[in-house]
Amino acid sequence: MRRALTLLALSTVSTLAAEQPLMRDFMGLNVHTVQFKPELYAPVTRVVRNYHPFSWDVGKDTAAPLEFPFAKNRVHWSSLYGGWKKAGYRSHASIMIDDTKPSAWKNLEADAEKYGREFAKHWGPSSAGALLEAAEIGNEPGNYSDEEYRKVFAAMAKGLRSGDAALKISTCAATIGKSGKYAKSVTCFEGLEALWDILNIHVYAEAEPWPTWRRSYPEDPATKFVSTITETLA
User: Fold this and answer.
1) Per the count of CB atoms within 10 A, which of 41, 105, 167, 210 is most buried?
2) In the predicted model, what is the mean pLDDT of residues 114-132?
3) Burial classification of residue 51, based on how many CB atoms lie within 10 Å of its CB (0-12 exposed, 13-18 middle, 19 or more buried)
4) Residue 11 class from Cβ within 10 Å (0-12 exposed, 13-18 middle, 19+ buried)?
């Protein structure tokens, strides 16, 4: 009887353990392309968000033909993202338009839509490699006015949707209230709900702002960590 109960207990624990995700299953990293070493972090993380430079793909001409799977600087995206997938990662791409000035686009809306469509076709879940599960349009595009960013977002999101409807689309860093250097107001996305799946929030457990950036635990009221997330989601 004791042995049977022990086996039952072990079986129950094993079942419960199998049903509970491990911390590594929902922890992620922000990384920059060729600098990331997936084998180093694979034991403790499963999600990776890559800073994918838009300028690497188009060079100085936003209307230039794309050369996927290569970037203009010859980074081979299939090999890069494929290696991460082989290491067990789920990958998201943050398409970094931040260093491309609004005035540098040849035809902002047309070029953004074309890029989004080709990007999704090559890397989305429905593609042959199924290397990316989500794409974020811009990271912290403070160099764009709200009007300029909304145009880029709407056009590129339309392209991503048409390229692969299974690819999740994320906004840039969003915030309530007015837009700032590091986040766009959620009002930028009003009326565009059909074009995004993920509302991106950049928030940190900072008890004090610059110049100390002193950190604390997330539930500390001084950080406004929980309240910022709650209010933004609402």
Assistant:
1) 167
2) 97
3) middle
4) exposed
- What residues does each domain of the chain span? 24-202
Tokens 């994918």 found at: 52
Give the β-pairing of 184-185 and 168-175: parallel
Q: Does the domain spanning 24-202 belong to CATH 3.40.309.10?
A: no
CA distance 201 to 79: 30
181 with 140: CB under 8 angstroms? yes
3-state secondary structure of 162: helix
**Helix, strand, coil share of the chain (percent; to 5):** 40, 15, 40
Please report, for residues 170, 205, 212, 222, 229, the alpha-carbon distance to residue 209 in angstroms, rounded to integers and kept in the order given: 27, 10, 6, 11, 18
Task: Give residue 133's identity as a one-letter amino acid code.
Answer: E
Cα 153 to Cα 189: distance, rounded to the nearest angstrom: 9
What pLDDT score was predicted for residue 19? Answer: 76
- The first and second tokens of residue 39, run together, are 């084998």
Confidence of residue 11 (pLDDT cuts 50, 70, 90): low
CB 170 within 8 A of CB 197: yes
Per-residue pLDDT reduced to its tens digit, 86-113: 999 999 999 999 889 999 999 999 999 9
Mean pLDDT of the chain: 92
Residue of 183, 112, 139, 143 whose CA lies nearest to 49: 139
Evaluate whether 68 touches 77 at the Cβ level (below 8 Å): yes
